[in-house]
Amino acid sequence: MLVSEKNNNDIVNCLLKKRVSFPQYVPKEDMLHVWCISLNGLHQYLSVLHQNLSKDECSRAGKYHFRKDRDHFILRRGILRTLISNYLEVDPHHIQFCYGKRGKPGIANNCSDKRLNFNMAHSKNLLLYAFSSKREVGIDLEHVRPIPEVAQIVETYFSNKEKKVFSGLPANQQKTFFFQLWSRKEAFLKATGKGLNQPMNSFDVISPDGFMQIQSNLEAVRWWNIEDLFPASGFSAAYAVEGGPPLKSIHYKYLCF
């Protein structure tokens, strides 16, 4: 089940004021919430979102050389804090982040008695946020574009099964397939928190139903639900969610300006 809605600036305004009607609850164990947000038109909220950042985040924002990059960082982190504050019913300022050994972000346990896992991705002017209650989650977003060295990348980072499927496709379908698989692989690595410590060619993400077992020398066999998302024309995206049974529903919120 895919729930898709379009909203205008009033929704963001309500979200910032904690009056938005969605979401009103942390996702259930068999649910995933995905937010797709365009940064176009959001600069009017830059000041209020900046106020919600921590000292560390403000310091990081100040290190960007170009204003556009700095503003996008503030918007990404400010919106993240706003969404989490609505889920956990806490003030955005009180949210504290913790980080795994390889940098995967999480929410510190002292923020709320509710458990919430999240992951985020951005490309160009698009943001994706994924939220789950108990399962580890990863999400990736890629801008689809020509890559001259795509053959070398496939040879280095794709599994034997993936390389065989890629080489068997017509040339006009290979770019789309490449970004689909790359998004799935990145989403999986972000979900596990292992990053490039797990070679990308050590697993494959081709499955007819998106539900697969993945095992490497770094961990025991685990089930993962990995599926594509289609946030906007010219973009490829995917999410990876740990464990079974499969998700019953995905609540997909699209904020377009």
Distance between the termini: 25 Å
State the order of secondary-structure elements, H for helix, E for strand.
Answer: EHEHHHEEEEEHHHEEEE
* Biggest beta sheet attributes: 5 strands, mixed
How much of the polypeptide forms β-strand, as a percent range? 25-35%
Number of helices: 7
Count of the domains: 1
How does CATH name the architecture?
Answer: Alpha-Beta Complex
Question: Main sheet: which strands, in order across?
Answer: 1-11-2-6-5
From the spread of the alpha carbons, the general shape counts as globular
Overall mean pLDDT score?
82
CATH homologous superfamily annotation: 4'-phosphopantetheinyl transferase domain
Radius of gyration: 18 Å
Using DSSP, what is the number of strands?
11
Summary, kept brief:
The chain is 32% helix and 28% strand.
Q: Could you list some keywords that capture this structure?
A:
Ribosomal Protein L22, Chain A; alpha+beta; single chain; 257 residues; 11 strands; 28% strand
Give a written overview of the molecule.
With 257 residues, the protein is an alpha+beta fold. The protein has helices at residues 9-16, 46-51, 55-62, 67-88, 150-157, 160-167, 171-192, and strands at residues 2-7, 31-38, 97-99, 105-107, 117-123, 126-132, 137-143, 211-216, 219-229, 235-242, 249-255. A 5-stranded mixed beta sheet has the order 1-11-2-6-5. Strands 7-10-9-8 form a 4-stranded antiparallel beta sheet. Helix 3 packs antiparallel against helix 4 (67-88). It starts with a strand and ends with a strand.
